[in-house]
Specification:
Blueprint (H helix, E strand, L loop, with lengths): L1 H31 L2 H4 L6 H11 L4 H15 L1
Helix pairs in contact: 3-4
Length: 75
């Protein structure tokens, strides 16, 4: 009789684990498919270059050189 009771408690625990995993998977899937992530436009190379210049990551000379290359590649 003790064996049957232990089996039932074990199976009950597995169902809790199963449902917790399902809920976590649904929440993570929902976060990855949120409209905020899908609708956000991608940054163009020119915008990225301007942002890097504004942040001080590159100098004006470097900006001009890279802008010439980008403009040449888009024609």
């Amino acid at each position: 009789m003790l064996h049957d009771y232990g089996y039932m408690v074990g199976m009950h625990a597995y169902w809790w684990v199963f449902w917790i995993v399902v809920v976590i998977a649904v929440v993570l899937w929902g976060r990855g498919n949120s409209p905020a992530r899908r609708d956000r436009p991608r940054e163009t190379p020119h915008e990225m270059l301007r942002r890097r210049l504004a942040n001080g990551d590159i100098s004006v000379e470097e900006y001009e050189k890279r802008k010439v290359i980008l403009d040449r590649d888009t024609q």
